[in-house]
């Protein structure tokens, strides 16, 4: 196809690791091509097997933020446009979750961090299997750690992404992985933006459900149950969540939450 023909020199450019300017030009052209392509065209003509390895390698670039930014942008677009079994599954096998999380745990360039958040939102929205892998790469802590650095719209993406991952908590190891992020979400329940509050509430509700399920399944006795209980009580999540579940004296909902979240 014409797209395959156009992409051949782009792929060669991406693999030109001795010529960074050529790589950057190839990344820019790839992003331009992806922006105007449909899912149908990409499925027929784009080789994830060929393009994903160099893109994930370039995402890890630390000394040139433009290279990391455009690699992240290309991966985000692919995660958005292509079937998850092709693009998302492929990039995660190559370590993209760890790479995006690393950009968020050490924010040197705000545009690269914002692109990483956008990518993780697309990836975690592609299915619980993919969201769970991101969560186990430290994704919940990563998307919430530097929340104050970002504008409100980006903060919404970050908290929504955290909520996506918290739907996948299923073991003691998962609870250990996410528990340090829970106080951040509790604090967000009193935030001034309703959408951020909603995503924080959903994330906490999902985490709470998962922790309770782990308690019910636990075969290790009272000590582990006490640990789970301590995780819940120390964050004061129940107290803060209950404040958003108010009803008026006439029995109507008196909450900023949507009806779906409330019930």
From TrEMBL:
Per the UniProt entry, the Enzyme Commission number(s) are 2.3.2.26
Top-level taxon:
Eukaryota
Provide a Gene Ontology MF annotation, just one: ubiquitin protein ligase activity
- E3 ubiquitin-protein ligase TRIP12-like TPR repeats domain location is 5-125
Q: Per the UniProt entry, what is one GO biological process?
A: proteasome-mediated ubiquitin-dependent protein catabolic process
What UniProt keywords are attached to this protein's entry? Answer: Transferase
Is Transferase a UniProt keyword of this protein?
Answer: yes
Q: What class of enzyme is it?
A: transferase
Reactions catalysed, semicolon-separated, are: S-ubiquitinyl-[E2 ubiquitin-conjugating enzyme]-L-cysteine + [acceptor protein]-L-lysine = [E2 ubiquitin-conjugating enzyme]-L-cysteine + N(6)-ubiquitinyl-[acceptor protein]-L-lysine
Which InterPro entries would you find in this protein's record?
ARM-like (IPR011989), ARM-type_fold (IPR016024), HECTD1/TRIP12-like (IPR045322), TPR_TRIP12_N (IPR057948)
Q: What is this protein called?
A: HECT-type E3 ubiquitin transferase
This protein's species is Chloropicon primus
Q: What is the lineage of its organism?
A: Eukaryota, Viridiplantae, Chlorophyta, Chloropicophyceae, Chloropicales
């Amino acid at each position: 196809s014409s797209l395959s023909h156009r992409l051949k020199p782009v792929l060669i450019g991406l693999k030109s690791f001795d010529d960074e300017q050529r790589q950057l030009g190839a990344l820019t052209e790839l992003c331009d091509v992806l922006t105007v392509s449909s899912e149908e065209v990409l499925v027929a003509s784009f080789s994830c097997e060929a393009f994903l390895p160099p893109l994930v390698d370039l995402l890890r670039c630390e000394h040139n933020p433009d290279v990391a930014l455009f690699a992240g942008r290309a991966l985000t677009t692919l995660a958005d446009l292509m079937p998850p079994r092709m693009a998302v599954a492929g990039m995660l096998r190559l370590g993209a979750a760890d790479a995006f999380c690393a950009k968020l745990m050490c924010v040197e360039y705000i545009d690269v961090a914002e692109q990483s958040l956008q990518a993780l939102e697309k990836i975690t929205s592609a299915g619980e299997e993919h969201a769970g892998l991101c969560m186990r790469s430290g994704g919940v802590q990563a998307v919430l750690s530097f929340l104050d650095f970002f504008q409100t719209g980006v903060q919404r993406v970050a908290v929504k992404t955290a909520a996506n991952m918290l739907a996948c908590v299923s073991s003691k190891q998962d609870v250990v992985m996410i528990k340090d992020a829970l106080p951040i979400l509790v604090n967000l329940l009193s935030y001034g933006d309703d959408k951020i509050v909603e995503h924080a509430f959903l994330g906490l509700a999902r985490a709470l459900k998962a922790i309770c399920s782990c308690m019910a399944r636990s075969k290790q006795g009272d000590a582990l149950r006490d640990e789970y209980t301590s995780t819940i009580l120390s964050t004061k999540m129940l107290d803060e969540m209950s404040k958003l579940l108010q009803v008026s004296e006439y029995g109507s909902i008196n909450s900023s939450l949507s009806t779906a979240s409330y019930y």
